[in-house]
Design goal:
about 0% strand, single chain
C-alpha cells in the first residue's frame, strides 16, 4: 500500500472525492473485503482499527 499523507483543502478536494467514490464502489462490490484484491485493504483497516482501539483504551 502507498504511504499515507494528510490531505489539504482545497488543493486535494478532487482527489478526496475520487477516493470516496472508489471506496464506495469497493464496498458495494465487496462489503466484507473478502476478494483477494481487497484483502490487503481489509488488513490495513484492521491494523488501524486495532491501533485506535489501543489508544482509546489507554486514554
Amino acid at each position: 500500500m502507498a504511504a499515507f499523507r494528510f490531505a489539504t483543502m482545497p488543493e486535494d478536494g478532487e482527489l478526496l472525492e475520487r477516493a470516496r467514490l472508489s471506496a464506495r464502489e469497493i464496498l458495494e462490490l465487496d462489503p466484507e473485503l473478502q476478494m483477494a484484491e481487497h484483502v490487503p485493504l481489509r488488513e490495513a483497516l484492521e491494523r488501524v482499527r486495532g491501533s485506535l482501539l489501543a489508544i482509546a483504551i489507554a486514554a
